[in-house]
Structures are given as C-alpha cells and as structure tokens.
Write a structure and sequence with these properties.
The structure is a single chain. The protein has 498 residues and is of the alpha/beta class. The chain has helices spanning 44-61, 66-82, 84-95, 99-118, 158-169, 183-195, 210-219, 232-242, 267-279, 296-312, 331-346, 383-386, 402-410, 425-434; strands at 9-11, 14-16, 23-27, 35-40, 126-129, 135-143, 146-150, 173-177, 203-205, 223-229, 248-252, 257-261, 289-295, 351-354, 373-376, 393-399, 414-415, 417-421, 439-442, 458-459, 477-485.
C-alpha cells in the first residue's frame, strides 16, 4: 500500500513541522484501512508562532488596496475551480459524504470566494448630510487584526471559505484550526491562496486538537476575533473565553430543524425533500431535517412512502457510483448516533419504523456505517424530538392542524432552519412569519443555503451574527464614523444647533 503523505502546518508562508514533532492520522471513515494523510499534532507554541506571523503581516496587509485583495481572492476562486475534482475526491476520502455532495461543497467555496472578491471594490460605508453647515459625515469599515477560525468537519472547505474570504478582503489576517477529522480540505484551500500570491503570514494553518490549538487561539490577546462552527457546548466555552477581552466572537452552532408537511402538500415533492434533508451528508448537517411535522390527514400515507424510500437508499463509500449516503465521520460519532437510536426505542410511545442500527458485513465492516432510521409517533417531550443527533435519524410527528404544527416547530432550543410543504400561500406566509428561525424554506427541504444570503440561526444556534453575503462583513470589521469640518470654526454639534 502506498505510504501516506505527510502534511505540515502553514506559518508565515512556509510549510513547517509542529513544535511537538508529533502527528496524527487522517482516516477514511468509509474504509479505515485507507490513511488519507499524516498531519501535525500542534501545541500552543505553534499557535503562538502563527499568531505572531499574522500580527506582523497585518501591518502591511491592512494597507494593501482592497481591490487588490479582491483580485487575489478572484484568482483563488479560479484555482479552486480548476482543481475542483481533485479537491472533492480528497474531501470524500477524508469526510465520507458522496462525491456529488463534496463537489457541491467545493463549489460553495468557489462561489463564496468569487462573491467576496467583489467586496474588494465594494465594502460600502455611508455618506450622510450633517446637521451643521460646512461639515461632511461618512462611515467606513476597519479591520480587526488577527482573526482566529475553528472550523468543522462536515463542510470542510465551504465553511472555511465563509470565514476566511470576508476576513481577508477586509484587511484582516487569519489563523485557522481545521477540524481534526478533515484537515486536508483546509490544506487544499490554503495551498490555493499560497499559489495565487497571498503574502506570507496573511493566512496561517495550524492542525491539532481543540485543547492544544483551539484553546490558545481563542484566549490570545492578539486575536481580535474568533469565528467558530460546531457544537453549542463548545461554542459556549468559546464565548466565555472571548468575553474578558471583549473580542468579536462569532458562533454557528447546533440545530434541530423541522419540515412541516401539510395535508395539501405535494407529497411526492415533500418525500424527496424530506429524504434529502434527513439523510444528505448522513444527517451530519446543522441544517438537517431531523423533525418531520406531518398533518394527521396524510401522516400514515406519507410515513409509509418515506420508510419505503429510506429502506431503498444505497449506503456505502461515497466515491462509488450510485451511492446515496456515506458513513458517519468517525467511530465515536457513529456510536453517539447508535446510542440515540437506543434512546428512541425506549421513548414511551415512539415507534421505530425502519433502521435502528449499524450496517455490517463486507465492506461495511471497514467503515462507520449506520442505517437510515425513522421513528414514528414522536412527541415534543421526547429526547429524540429535542436533542440534536447529527446522524442518519429523523422523526415523524403527527399534528392535528396548522397551528399545532407551528407550535411544535418552535418548541425547540435551536432556531436554525425550517420549511413547510403546502399549496396554500396564506399558510406559507404565516409559517414564514411565525416560525422563529434564521432560515426558512417553502416547498423545499431545510438544506440548500446560497452564498449571497445570510446564514445563521436564532436561540441556541448562534449569537446573532451571520455568515456568507455582506452580513458576514459585520463579524470581521468595526465601523468608524468620520466627521470632516471645513467651516474653519469650532462647531459644537447639538450645542450650537438648537
């Protein structure tokens, strides 16, 4: 078997070994015999070196003309487009989701990078009339400095691009810690920046665990912003770590998203959306539709259709043709999902309609594969109704009417994404107004965000910021109001203007 490649950290424009000299393996979750690569197990000294490089590079990068920063991003997008297939295949090997999905993940990074390249010639402020004569008012954005980024494994190149590109185009510098399960995708993204002429130190990559890399990154006083995507529990710790220095803290965390299926819905359309929403990326999306809230008039018919299709899903190695669902990312994640399947079976009143276990035999024994699993007759008090599972499990919840569907949709600690299937425009607009989430769909599943729209959620899903589009610029910049008085006198604003 071919010896796996060793990948290094990227600090101050150079690929370097970690201070510890230790490494870890990146394993294919569909075939644990396949070592994707060897990566650096870094520590706080590596993080310190990366932050020092970023802080030094910031002095000149913030003064680099923003349109020129945008041009570098544009070239990076072209590079990613050129290398899309290779990047996507690497991603499927290290993350497990099917190739069609990793191609979409890479395309999202391409789209995001093209979009933010344009912000090099926009990033608009405001001009406004002054209340005084011979006085000019305007507002401008200013960068924060070094931005620390901690990214997840489920979208291993798209989400880093959401964070890196707006930060960079605004004049910030970056230290990124990729997820330990998927560091290669971030290496591929950073290589594109290196090859397209990004100055040394502007982007730095340090791989390793959350305790050895993430913790010193979030607490270093030289870091002006921490952007994190992951669990709510870790997000809370990051918020606490950032608060003493009042640094910008952007958190994108959990979800327990619902699809409302009304009695007038196109059931075939709702079926396709529910399958894709529940089992796309093996359910390992913060936007996965893990709750299907179904009107009682169509409940039995729809659940029968859903179970039939779920049983027929082809599960396997995402690089193989015809595969519709890949493995869990790791053994520990698989075991967590299996435990929730056991919890669901013990819930009083819930019914296991299909799945409920691990897939075994043949090639399945070399990977972390779970069955597409559906529970029926789920009620709001149940754990599987309330808690994020992050795996191939979805719930079917019967409701009596539209009002109860809205009530159940909002009965959740999270508020990321929701959708409704209905042919009634009045219901659609009412649900759009009354379901308290950051994202809402009509006659579509809970997944499918686009880069020119704000991404993020309410309640325990986030802390009020948004990713993608122009709203992401708020995370990585501060506003400065500028007043220019050309009257030649000392005008005292409201005092002299009563």
């Amino acid at each position: 078997m071919k010896k796996p490649k060793v990948y290094k950290n990227f600090i101050n424009g150079e690929w370097v070994k970690s201070h510890t000299g230790e490494t870890f393996q990146n394993i294919n979750p569909a075939n644990t015999d396949d070592v994707v690569g060897i990566f650096q197990q870094s520590d706080d000294q590596d993080v310190d070196a990366a932050i020092s490089a970023a802080a030094e590079a910031y002095k000149s990068w913030r003064l680099y003309p923003a349109p020129k920063r945008g041009e570098i991003l544009y070239r990076v997008a072209q590079r990613l487009l050129k290398d899309k297939e290779e990047i996507s295949r690497d991603m499927t090997r290290e993350m497990g989701k099917v190739l069609a999905e990793t191609r979409g993940d890479t395309q999202e990074a391409i789209d995001m990078t093209y979009y933010m390249a344009g912000e090099g010639r926009r990033s608009f402020g405001q001009t406004t009339p002054s209340e005084m004569t011979n006085k000019f008012c305007m507002s401008i954005r200013q960068p924060l400095g070094v931005c620390g980024m901690i990214t997840p494994w489920n979208f291993p190149i798209a989400i880093p691009s959401w964070k890196m590109t707006p930060a960079l185009v605004l004049g910030n510098t970056v230290v990124i810690k990729p997820a330990t399960y998927t560091p290669l995708s971030v290496v591929n993204l950073v290589k594109a920046f290196e090859e397209e002429g990004l100055p040394p130190g502007v982007v730095n990559l340090v791989s390793g665990s959350g305790s050895s890399v993430g913790q010193p990154l979030m607490t270093d006083k030289r870091v002006g912003c921490v952007s994190f995507t992951g669990s709510t529990d870790i997000g809370r710790k990051i918020s606490e770590a950032c608060s003493p220095d009042f640094k910008h803290c952007h958190l994108e965390m959990g979800g327990k998203n619902c699809i409302i299926i009304m009695d007038d819905a196109d059931l075939d359309l709702a079926l396709e959306g529910s399958l894709w929403g529940a089992f796309g990326t093996t359910g390992q999306r913060c936007t996965a539709s893990s709750r299907l809230i179904i009107h009682k008039k169509v409940y039995n018919k729809f659940t029968k259709m859903l179970v039939e299709r779920a049983k027929a899903l082809k599960v396997g190695n995402g690089l193989e043709d015809g595969i519709e669902m890949g493995p869990a990312i790791s053994e520990s994640q698989m075991n967590s999902v299996l435990e929730y399947m056991r919890i669901g079976e013990k819930e009083d009143g819930a019914k296991l309609l299909c799945g409920g276990g691990r897939l075994t035999g043949g090639a399945y024994d070399k990977g972390w594969f779970t069955q597409p699993t559906i529970f029926g007759d789920v009620e709001p008090g149940m754990r599987i109704f309330k808690e994020e599972i992050f795996g191939s499990v979805t719930d079917c919840i019967p409701v009596n009417d539209f009002d109860q569907a809205i009530e159940f949709a909002n009965d959740c600690a999270y508020g990321l994404s929701a959708s409704i299937y209905t042919q009634d425009v009045n219901r659609a607009f009412t649900a759009m107004r009354d379901v308290y989430t950051g994202i809402f769909y009509v006659n579509a599943p809970t997944i499918g965000a686009e880069t020119h729209m704000p991404f993020g959620g309410t309640k325990h899903t986030g802390n009020g910021h948004r990713e993608a589009c122009t709203q992401s610029l708020e995370v990585f910049s501060e506003w400065k109001s500028v007043y220019i008085d050309f009257s030649g006198t000392n005008q005292r604003a409201q005092i002299d203007n009563q």
